[in-house]
Design a protein that fits this description.
126 residues, mainly alpha, Methane Monooxygenase Hydroxylase, Chain G, domain 1, 86% helix
Length: 126
Protein backbone atom coordinates (compact mmCIF):
# COMPACT_ATOMS: atom_id res chain seq x y z
CA UNK A 1 0.00 0.00 0.00
CA UNK A 2 1.21 3.49 -0.86
CA UNK A 3 1.69 5.85 2.06
CA UNK A 4 0.64 9.43 1.42
CA UNK A 5 0.57 12.54 3.53
CA UNK A 6 -3.12 13.36 3.98
CA UNK A 7 -2.39 17.00 4.79
CA UNK A 8 -0.39 17.30 1.56
CA UNK A 9 -3.30 15.96 -0.51
CA UNK A 10 -5.73 18.28 1.22
CA UNK A 11 -3.34 21.20 0.77
CA UNK A 12 -3.02 20.44 -2.93
CA UNK A 13 -6.81 20.38 -3.25
CA UNK A 14 -7.03 23.79 -1.56
CA UNK A 15 -4.31 25.20 -3.82
CA UNK A 16 -6.09 23.92 -6.94
CA UNK A 17 -9.41 25.37 -5.80
CA UNK A 18 -7.80 28.74 -5.06
CA UNK A 19 -6.21 28.74 -8.50
CA UNK A 20 -9.55 27.87 -10.09
CA UNK A 21 -11.22 30.75 -8.23
CA UNK A 22 -8.59 33.03 -9.70
CA UNK A 23 -9.22 31.57 -13.17
CA UNK A 24 -12.94 32.18 -12.71
CA UNK A 25 -12.29 35.80 -11.77
CA UNK A 26 -9.96 36.24 -14.76
CA UNK A 27 -12.54 34.75 -17.14
CA UNK A 28 -15.21 37.08 -15.80
CA UNK A 29 -12.88 40.05 -16.36
CA UNK A 30 -12.23 38.86 -19.91
CA UNK A 31 -15.99 38.58 -20.47
CA UNK A 32 -16.39 42.22 -19.42
CA UNK A 33 -13.61 43.23 -21.77
CA UNK A 34 -15.32 41.26 -24.55
CA UNK A 35 -18.62 43.05 -23.87
CA UNK A 36 -16.87 46.41 -24.18
CA UNK A 37 -15.28 45.31 -27.46
CA UNK A 38 -18.60 43.99 -28.78
CA UNK A 39 -20.16 47.43 -28.26
CA UNK A 40 -17.84 48.86 -30.92
CA UNK A 41 -18.51 48.97 -34.64
CA UNK A 42 -17.08 45.59 -35.72
CA UNK A 43 -16.74 43.72 -38.99
CA UNK A 44 -18.60 40.49 -39.61
CA UNK A 45 -15.43 38.45 -38.95
CA UNK A 46 -14.81 40.32 -35.71
CA UNK A 47 -18.40 39.66 -34.62
CA UNK A 48 -17.83 35.98 -35.37
CA UNK A 49 -14.74 36.10 -33.13
CA UNK A 50 -16.75 37.86 -30.40
CA UNK A 51 -19.28 35.03 -30.48
CA UNK A 52 -16.48 32.45 -30.39
CA UNK A 53 -14.85 34.02 -27.32
CA UNK A 54 -18.20 34.49 -25.61
CA UNK A 55 -18.89 30.77 -26.04
CA UNK A 56 -15.39 29.79 -24.93
CA UNK A 57 -15.56 31.91 -21.78
CA UNK A 58 -18.93 30.37 -20.94
CA UNK A 59 -17.67 26.83 -21.51
CA UNK A 60 -14.49 27.38 -19.50
CA UNK A 61 -16.43 28.93 -16.61
CA UNK A 62 -18.55 25.77 -16.52
CA UNK A 63 -15.40 23.63 -16.64
CA UNK A 64 -13.86 25.62 -13.78
CA UNK A 65 -17.02 25.20 -11.69
CA UNK A 66 -17.28 21.47 -12.39
CA UNK A 67 -13.62 20.80 -11.61
CA UNK A 68 -13.81 22.87 -8.42
CA UNK A 69 -16.78 20.78 -7.29
CA UNK A 70 -14.98 17.53 -8.16
CA UNK A 71 -11.94 18.61 -6.17
CA UNK A 72 -14.11 19.62 -3.22
CA UNK A 73 -15.85 16.24 -3.31
CA UNK A 74 -12.52 14.45 -3.55
CA UNK A 75 -11.14 16.38 -0.57
CA UNK A 76 -14.18 15.34 1.46
CA UNK A 77 -13.60 11.73 0.42
CA UNK A 78 -9.97 11.97 1.56
CA UNK A 79 -11.10 13.30 4.95
CA UNK A 80 -13.78 10.61 5.26
CA UNK A 81 -11.41 7.75 4.38
CA UNK A 82 -8.84 9.06 6.83
CA UNK A 83 -11.37 8.81 9.64
CA UNK A 84 -13.11 5.63 8.46
CA UNK A 85 -9.94 3.66 7.66
CA UNK A 86 -7.83 5.00 10.47
CA UNK A 87 -5.42 6.75 8.14
CA UNK A 88 -4.60 4.97 4.88
CA UNK A 89 -6.39 5.95 1.67
CA UNK A 90 -7.58 3.51 -0.95
CA UNK A 91 -5.67 3.23 -4.20
CA UNK A 92 -8.78 4.50 -6.00
CA UNK A 93 -8.69 7.72 -4.00
CA UNK A 94 -5.01 8.24 -4.73
CA UNK A 95 -5.62 7.55 -8.43
CA UNK A 96 -8.52 10.03 -8.37
CA UNK A 97 -6.20 12.64 -6.88
CA UNK A 98 -3.71 12.13 -9.70
CA UNK A 99 -6.50 12.27 -12.31
CA UNK A 100 -7.81 15.52 -10.84
CA UNK A 101 -4.32 17.00 -10.92
CA UNK A 102 -3.99 16.12 -14.61
CA UNK A 103 -7.43 17.61 -15.29
CA UNK A 104 -6.44 20.74 -13.37
CA UNK A 105 -3.23 21.13 -15.38
CA UNK A 106 -5.10 20.61 -18.65
CA UNK A 107 -7.78 23.16 -17.80
CA UNK A 108 -5.18 25.66 -16.61
CA UNK A 109 -3.30 25.28 -19.90
CA UNK A 110 -6.52 25.65 -21.91
CA UNK A 111 -7.42 28.85 -20.08
CA UNK A 112 -3.92 30.29 -20.51
CA UNK A 113 -4.10 29.60 -24.25
CA UNK A 114 -7.57 31.15 -24.45
CA UNK A 115 -6.34 34.21 -22.55
CA UNK A 116 -3.43 34.63 -24.99
CA UNK A 117 -5.64 34.17 -28.07
CA UNK A 118 -8.15 36.66 -26.72
CA UNK A 119 -5.36 39.15 -26.00
CA UNK A 120 -4.24 38.86 -29.62
CA UNK A 121 -7.82 39.43 -30.77
CA UNK A 122 -8.15 42.53 -28.59
CA UNK A 123 -4.89 43.96 -29.99
CA UNK A 124 -6.10 43.35 -33.57
CA UNK A 125 -9.47 44.97 -32.89
CA UNK A 126 -9.64 48.77 -32.99
Amino acid sequence: MVTVDISQLSGECNTWRDSLRSCRDDLNQLKKQLQQTAAQNLTRDQLHDVEHYHNQFHIQLINVHDLKQSIKSHDRRVQFETIANGGPLTEDTIAEHERLFEEFQSLDSTIKNLREEFGDFIHRTP
